[in-house]
Design a protein that fits this description.
Elements: H1 2-28, H2 30-37, H3 40-61, H4 64-74, H5 79-103, H6 105-112, H7 118-143, H8 147-178, H9 194-210, H10 212-216, H11 224-254, H12 262-279, H13 281-300, H14 306-330, H15 332-335, H16 350-366, H17 368-372, H18 377-401, H19 403-428, H20 435-451, H21 460-481
Helix pairs in contact: 1-8, 1-13, 3-7, 3-11, 3-12, 4-5, 4-7, 4-11, 5-7, 5-11, 7-9, 8-9, 11-18, 11-19, 12-16, 13-14, 14-16, 14-20, 14-21, 16-19, 18-19
Length: 497
């Protein structure tokens, strides 16, 4: 029975994880479209406003999703009361948020710099409010062990958003040329970037329709006592969430406010946002790795020595991240085709952002100690330090060095957070990480990356062949030292020990 439960849990975890990765990947595929149909300044608007959504989502959900899981499991016999309380509370705060926005509509849109197109902000606010409310029905589906329906509804939103973007940016312009009467009654070619936000709010509304059974298919309960407990539990998560998300998005949030020339600022932000998206391939691959490496790591440690498992998990994460770094940098000339040539000037930030993501991943791996010891306020402290570093670098250097300063701010922020978390963590929960092996791989990575610049001919095939050879050296080193083929699932069937 225990093995069946573990197997079921693993299957559901894979479904949720793969859906999250695929969702990010499908949305990532919109970047080539945006960079080809939008000017850099217009894409700067998308980058700026979407960086705001992450912060708003944390604020509007205020940890209630995690709180629901905590108390629905604690009060299994009253889970519907917990669900109803969370649902009514999120609905109330989402409506209140929209009401406050409606009252202060003009100053908010003016402060954000969109007084000429305030509807961009309005579309975004409605989409975020619906998303925040939907977090509880989605949590309910996970609680009820319904991963297929969870994933299906997620993909309804993703599919609708992609189709609507293709419709507004590809189909409608074509119809305006061949049969304008079909679309000219609702489509305005000059509206441009506005259709990004129109697509988003319509897609979110469609998603909400599919959640109706989870919203209205239960008896509504509300418990003030449960709500108080949930809020007490969730509030520290809100602080952690805001601090964490600010580190990831503050650079794009304040960027345009650091320049007098707003048009120039949006253009620079558009270039930064597009090239930042290219670097996000690292994040998608490392997320996928987290679902792939765990069976391998735990298979090597059947004992109950959990610290050894954490140390190995860290080592394999770093190895895999360095492999992705080399792969992306060696084939960046090909990867850059994802974005329009107008944005290529910003590709010099990609290696910096990739290292920032590596440091961020190491930091998340290190954070196991304060989560296990219930010392989560350390997480808030580290995030606060990182935020102070990011803001300082942004404010001082962005006006002079533009998005290059933003990239280095992310690098320094997560590098410092990583170091502080390690040294403090070693006091509370000492873990012996394999620094000898980790150091070797980092040195080899930097050496191979440096060697890649030694050959740069006019023949693309020669350049790719040389870089592929360098990448093969790293792969052989991995296989020889830490990834013996005879121990890797599936592959081991075809390899002799």
């Amino acid at each position: 029975m225990a093995q069946q439960g573990i197997k079921k849990l693993a299957q559901e975890t894979a479904i949720y994880g793969v859906s999250s990765i695929l969702g990010r990947f499908v949305n990532f595929l919109l970047v080539p479209l945006y960079t080809r149909v939008l000017m850099t300044g217009e894409y700067g608007i998308v980058t700026h406003l979407y960086s705001l959504t992450a912060l708003l989502m944390v604020a509007l959900t205020y940890g209630m999703e995690t709180g629901f899981f905590r108390f629905a499991n604690k009060y299994r016999n009253q889970y519907q009361k917990v669900y109803g309380t969370a649902l009514i509370t999120l609905a109330s705060t989402s409506v209140a948020f929209l009401a406050v926005y409606s009252i202060f509509y003009a100053p908010i849109t003016s402060f954000l710099g969109y007084s000429q197109h305030p509807e961009f902000v309005t579309f975004l606010m409605f989409a975020v409010a619906m998303d925040a409310f939907a977090s509880i029905p989605f949590a309910y589906l996970r609680f009820k062990n319904r991963p297929i329906r969870f994933v299906a509804i997620r993909f309804v939103y993703i599919g609708a958003n992609v189709v609507l973007n293709l419709f507004f940016f590809i189909v409608c312009p074509w119809l305006m040329q061949v049969a304008p009467h079909l679309v000219d009654w609702f489509y305005n070619p000059a509206y441009g970037v506005g259709y990004v936000f129109v697509s988003n709010v319509i897609g979110t509304a469609i998603m909400m329709l599919f959640l109706i059974p989870e919203i209205f298919g239960i008896k509504f309960y509300f418990s003030l006592n449960i709500l108080k407990k949930m809020l007490r539990y969730s509030f520290p998560l809100l602080i952690l969430g805001i601090a964490g998300i600010m580190n990831q998005s503050i650079d794009r949030l304040i960027f345009i406010h650091l320049f007098e020339d707003q048009e120039f600022a949006r253009s620079e932000l558009g270039i930064y946002g597009a090239c930042f998206k290219v670097a996000m391939i690292m994040m998608m691959f490392t997320q996928a790795f987290r679902f792939a490496y765990e069976p391998f790591v735990f298979a090597r440690h059947k004992s109950k020595n959990s610290k050894a498992v954490y140390a190995d998990a860290m080592k394999y994460y770093i190895i895999f991240s360095l492999l992705i770094f080399l792969g992306m940098m060696f084939y960046l000339d090909f990867i850059k085709l994802l974005i329009d040539e107008e944005y290529w000037v910003g590709l010099k930030i990609v290696p910096i952002i990739l290292w920032a993501y590596i440091f961020q991943g190491i930091y998340f791996n290190l954070s196991i100690w304060y989560k296990l010891l219930d010392k989560t306020m350390f997480g808030a402290l580290f995030a606060g330090i990182g935020l102070a570093i990011t803001l300082t670098i942004q404010i001082i250097f962005v006006p002079k060095y533009s998005y290059m300063a933003s990239a280095w701010a992310a690098f320094v922020c997560f590098f410092v957070m990583m170091l502080i978390s390690y040294f403090v963590g070693q006091r509370y929960m000492p873990i012996r990480y394999d620094f000898k092996t980790i150091g070797l791989y980092i040195v080899v990575t930097l050496a191979l990356f440096g060697a890649s610049f030694l050959v740069d001919t006019q023949h693309v095939i020669v350049n790719y062949a040389y870089r592929t050879f360098l990448l093969a050296i790293f792969v052989v080193l991995i296989v020889k030292r830490d990834f013996p083929l005879s121990e890797i699932p599936v592959v081991k069937r075809f390899v002799r020990k």
